[in-house]
Amino acid sequence: MIKNILNLDGTHQISRTQQKSIKGGIGLPSSDDCGCIVMGSHGYLEIIAVSCSNTCPDGSTPKPGLGS
Asked: Which of 6-10, 39-43, 62-66 is predicted most confidently?
């Protein structure tokens, strides 16, 4: 799989130090935040952050550990 990715134009493998310096991913600002999986405007599933005391747009219960 990595060979296929490295064959794409403009890609290169980064060092372990560079990997550790990358800040990103899915995180939540506080323990009161949950998430809902919804259909986005382009037809793809998306995760949206909502308060755990709210409900998801489809009426389901938000899941802890999801966020944007």
From this structure: 39-43
